[in-house]
Design goal:
462 residues, Alpha-D-Glucose-1,6-Bisphosphate, Chain A, domain 3, TATA-Binding Protein, 15 helices
């Protein structure tokens, strides 16, 4: 059981004691803290947009959030079953003070979370997050009397509005996609991707669609993180149905990856690389990804005459850097695509529209498209931590061991080895250290990661 409070939101497992899990009391306190911050920032705007993924606990958490916001005197626009990017866009369209997305993203079914948005439909800043945490911890909020209670309005129009925004985006070529007559297998992992992805594909002119795990039950058929080891069924079904490609999303539809026609992985790191290649071919400019992402994006950006800029890990950091350098495309190597002139948020739906446009113009198979990009391998690993482990001390000792190598401490610890790198950082959402290593050979990347994992264990056992 776990409860993780961070500047980006609150996340935890359902069931257990308050303060140790995501209990109803914690949901109420954190929602009240956020609502209080919103009212301070936008005293004349009482509107808050919410939406949720398909988790089993979603309706229970939704009821708590709506009631708490109403008790503060705030009016709720409830999108119901939705996606993270849809809620982000709806905040702007509704001219709301902010929004809350009820989703634990890629975490297993027993987790849920509140993701917090400002009036621009973007994740709140670290400073704002710290204030929300402080208000929640100190219970520094007050509820209104019966005559001033807020309202709740259900709005189910945003599925179509989001799809219309994607199909109407200048670089999404619906005619070219329709002409290719793609056959697509979708793994919707028993969440809202089952509603949104097939609807988008049909709007893009894709008529032959096979949906796996298409019931929105929240009982995920497999680990919901779209990693190769969790996409065995999708790979098999792409082969079985002789499909052109497979598409996998996570439960809140902000991460995206593809499977090639032979069942092999396109590679989640290369989702952003491919989409960026397409956009830069039409609209030259700068790109951004976090420092745990493949260096292939930098190479594609330079090829098109742009500049590449790394950021700290975390969507809010990527967005901040994108704004600083006026990037035309950015995101994260976990399959997160951010198209700034649509909205500043990871969005699998615009990612699908742009990727299929790229593939349609390529006029060959997805496997052939993948072959156009360099082969780098990122070994992604993690070490679980006991509570209250001092990760800063761990990174300091390891950094000292590799002091003769180029070292970056902006976000955890990144160490470079000639043409390879390894990045160690504590997760913002789970009690773990993530260890990512990239090389031109898979075994080499794995060996680098294993070496650093052993270093971490040795330091922890000292």
């Amino acid at each position: 059981m776990a409860l993780i409070k961070s500047i980006s939101g609150i996340r935890g497992t359902i069931g257990g004691k308050p303060g140790e899990t995501l209990s109803p009391l914690d949901v109420v306190k954190f929602t009240a803290g956020f609502g209080t911050w919103l009212m301070e920032q936008y005293p004349t705007n009482k509107k808050v947009v919410i939406g949720r993924d398909g988790r089993i606990s979603g309706e229970m958490v939704r009821s708590l959030v709506v009631s708490t916001l109403n008790a503060l005197g705030l009016d709720v626009v409830d999108l119901g079953l939705s996606t993270t990017p849809t809620v982000e866009m709806a905040v702007v369209w509704e001219k709301a003070a902010g929004g809350i997305i009820l989703t634990a993203s890629h975490n297993p079914k027993d987790w849920n979370a509140l993701k917090l948005l400002n009036h621009e439909g973007e994740f709140i800043s670290a400073e704002a997050g710290a204030k929300v945490l402080d208000y929640a911890d100190k219970e520094a909020f007050s509820f209104v009397g019966v005559d001033k209670l807020g309202t709740c309005q259900v709005n189910d129009t945003y599925l179509q509005r989001h799809i219309d925004a994607v199909t109407g985006y200048a670089l999404v070529d619906v005619k070219a996609i329709h002409k290719r007559k793609f056959k697509v297998v979708v793994d919707a992992v028993n969440s809202t991707g089952a509603i949104f992805v097939p609807a988008l594909l049909k709007a893009l002119g894709v008529e032959d669609i096979v949906v796996l795990n298409g019931e929105v039950t929240g009982k995920f058929a497999h680990n919901p993180e779209p990693l190769p080891e969790n996409l065995v069924e999708l790979s098999r079904e792409v082969n079985k149905h002789h499909a052109d490609l497979g598409i996998a999303v996570d439960p809140d539809v902000d991460r995206l990856c593809f499977v090639c026609e032979d069942g092999s992985m396109f590679g989640e790191e290369y989702t952003l690389v491919a989409v960026a290649d397409y956009i830069l071919s039409k609209r030259p400019g700068n790109t951004v990804s976090n420092m745990s992402s493949t260096k292939a994006l930098k190479e594609v950006t330079l090829k098109h005459g742009g500049q590449y800029f790394p950021s700290a890990v975390g969507e809010v950091n990527v967005v901040r850097k994108m704004k600083e350098v006026d990037a035309v495309i950015g995101g994260e190597g976990n399959g997160g695509i951010i198209v700034p002139d649509l909205h500043y948020g990871r969005d699998a739906l615009i990612g699908i529209g742009l990727f299929l446009s790229h593939l349609a113009h390529h006029k060959k198979s997805i496997k052939n498209l993948r072959a156009q990009y360099p082969d780098y391998f990122i070994s992604k690993n993690k070490i679980e931590l006991e509570p209250h482990v001092d990760t800063h001390a761990i990174f300091s000792k390891i950094g000292n061991k590799y002091k003769n190598n180029p070292v970056n401490t902006e976000d955890g610890l990144k160490i470079e080895f000639e043409n390879d790198w390894v990045h160690l950082r504590p997760s913002n959402t789970e009690p773990i250290i993530r260890i990512y290593a990239e090389s031109d050979f898979e075994t080499k990347a794995n060996n680098i990661a294993q070496r650093l994992m052993q270093d971490i264990r040795e330091v922890m056992n000292e």
